[in-house]
Amino acid sequence: MGEVEEPRDLLAERIRRLERRIEEMAGNLTSASSQIARTSANVDSLVDLVGRLGRVVDVQGTVLSGEESDLERRLGSVQESVHDLASGLADVVERLERISGEIASALGARARSR
């Protein structure tokens, strides 16, 4: 009887570890989601700023090269942030899929042992 319980205990411990990993991934995903929301807000602000700069140039007929350069630098920084966030999200999704496979495998092994 002790031999039957030992694999079951090991499987239960493995499932608990997988659950902790999933919770950790969920936390990472929530964090990435909030970073995306902040980045999105920054992009919206930049779009608004570009619109206002365009109107100022149209009205005044002058080139605001210094502000345009700053805006281009900011936009480049936002692009890098969005790229990094997208890469991070892809990693999270890949890990979640791998964990899902491990859980399915563990549950299948558990069902077969019954």
Structure characterization notes:
Helix 1 runs antiparallel to helix 2. The mean pLDDT is 79. The chain has 2 helices and no strands. It has helices at residues 2-60, 65-113. It is 95% helix and 0% strand. By secondary structure, it is mostly helical.
In short:
The chain is mainly α. 95% of the residues lie in helices and 0% in strands.
Topology:
Layout lengths: L1 H59 L4 H49 L1
Cα shape? rod-shaped
**Helix/strand/pairing category:** mainly alpha
Percent helix among the residues? Answer: over 70%
How would you spell out the order of helices and strands? Answer: HH
Count of DSSP H/I helices: 2
The number of distinct β-strands equals: 0
Alpha-carbon distance between the two ends: 13 Å
The percentage of residues in β strands lies in: under 5%
Low-confidence stretches: none
Write down the Rg.
25 Å
Main β-sheet description: none
Mean of residue pLDDT? Answer: 79
